[in-house]
Amino acid sequence: MLDHEKDHSSRWAAVVSIAAKIGCAGQTLHEWVKKAEVDSGMRAGVPSDVADRTKALERENRELRKANEILRKASAYFAMAEFYRRAR
């Protein structure tokens, strides 16, 4: 895509032309190009691999927080059960 940009009057014209040839929407191709520029360091932003890793770590963190909450509640439940058992 970037190689064909000089053959058109604007970047968008190049995107629309190439998108039609490969059978996708112009906006989709434009987003792919922007992502490729970020990944290659030509444009500022968070590279795909870093964004994917961050998303995975956030998901793992969320799951661990849920597991900790379940364990906290189970611990409190069993502590109360033991308290009432000893109180009899």
UniProtKB/TrEMBL annotation:
GO molecular function, one term: transposase activity
GO BP field: DNA transposition
Superkingdom of origin organism: Bacteria
Residue ranges of the TM segments: none
Ranges in a coiled coil: none
SUPFAM superfamilies linked: Homeodomain-like (SSF46689)
InterPro entries per record: Homeodomain-like_sf, Transposase_8, WH-like_DNA-bd_sf
Name of this protein: Transposase-like protein
Source organism (scientific name): Sphingomonas melonis
